[in-house]
Amino acid sequence: MLDVAIDHGMTTIDTAPLYGFGGVESELGGLLAGRRDRVELLSKVGLRWDDEHGEILFSFHDKSGRHTSVRRDSRPEAIRRDVEESLTRLRTDVLDLCQIHHPDRRTPIADAVGTLEDLVSEGKIRHLGVSNFAGPEIEAAIEGLSRVPLASDQLEYNLLKRTADREILPLARQHGFSLLAYSPLDAGSLAGKLLAAQANIEDGRRDRATFQGRNASAINDVLTRCVQPIAQELDASLAQICLAWIIRRSEFAAVVVGASSETQVVSNAGAAAIGLDESQWNALGEAFTGLSLRPASGAGIVRRTRSFLGRVRRRLWG
Predict the structure, then answer these.
(1) What DSSP line would sit under 177-238, residue for residue?
(2) Which residues, other chains included, contact 174 with Cβ-Cβ below 8 Å and sequence gap of 6+?
(3) Which of 12, 25, 150, 242 is in Cβ range 3.0-4.6 Å of 89 for a Cys bridge?
(4) pTM of model > 0.85
């Protein structure tokens, strides 16, 4: 899939030490050997699983019963360690973009971004950014920078989740940093995963609020009534239209979209060529704005958490 992605122009790769607890970066380093110059590598810092310092983001038990906690740690020494280890695993001497993965309320933001500035000066990273930061935290990051501008904020954003419109997008326009949207298809609900009559989602997504009961029906109604006609008119898939809707926004430099097959990779790459006109773009936004979705049920939240931890265990230990 990586070969197909690069061949189709998807040459910006988003990763992080947390993914596979270093394993994903190590695998990427091997797969990219001899062609590092063909891609941009984006990684993140500030989450540790092998240190007792920092506020816990989440915890779980592995198959042997061992307890592991992932903690927020953006201390200067932790950020430096993260970057050095990522460079080693990825077999490169520079990261094209390094972002603070989650805000660390125990470390002054100025100290964290100041360390990234130093790493830019040292040539170990080219650009710096943040991820999952609220508006005031982004403003604190900008105020803490004196030599290098904030390049990016990576956040969850899609047609269903647009809370960033009120605060983050205006900041991006004001200060000139770009946005990277993760979960642009809401784990597949916007790709029409539940439209089939016999749709059966057996992984953790079935416990997401947008995959449940009335919510799923409401989303499917909008997909059928509004998105599908535009997709047919432009000879595109539902997923491509929903990705193109974000891409058309000037504040977004990219959508961070995953795939589970080569066919999906090619389809995702094709979204960049979809030209939504203003009326189509407005119609899509308005159609989803009117949705009133219910939160996930308590039981669903528990099942979703267990499923997530199960996926973590399988990814780390097989």
Answers:
(1) -EEEEESTTGGGGGGTTT-STT----SGGGGSGGGSHHHHHHHHHHIIIIIHHHHHHTT--H
(2) none
(3) 25
(4) yes
* Alpha helices, H only, the chain: 2-7, 23-31, 76-90, 109-121, 135-144, 164-175, 213-222, 228-233, 238-247, 262-270, 278-289, 298-317
Whole-angstrom distance, CA of residue 26 vs CA of residue 88: 8
* pLDDT tens, residue by residue, 236-287: 999 999 999 999 999 999 999 999 899 999 999 999 999 999 999 999 999 9
The answer to whether 129 and 97 have CB atoms below 8 angstroms apart is yes
How many angstroms separate the CA atoms of 5 and 186, rounded? 21
**Structure-block tokens of residue 8:** 């189709």
3 state SS of 270: helix
Model confidence pLDDT, tens digit, residues 14-30: 999 999 999 999 999 99
Residues with Cβ < 8 Å from 316, sequence gap 6 or more? 20, 21, 23, 62
Q: How far is CA 251 from CA 111, 245, 292, in A?
A: 27, 12, 26
Query: Which string of b and e fits 208-245 if b means at least 16 CB within 10 Å?
Result: bbbbbeebbebbbebbeebbbebbeebebbbbbbbbbb
Count of positions (residues) in the chain: 318
**68: which DSSP letter?**
E
Distances (CA, A) of 119 to 36, 98, 176: 20, 10, 21
Query: What angle (nearest 5°) sits at the alpha carbon of residue 284, between those of residues 280 and 289?
Result: 145
Cα(226)–Cα(99) distance, rounded to whole angstroms?
A: 36
* Of residues 235, 229, 302, 309, the one with CA closest to residue 274: 235
Write out the catalytic residue numbers: 19
Residue partners of 56: CB distance under 8 A and separation at least 6: 69, 70, 71, 72
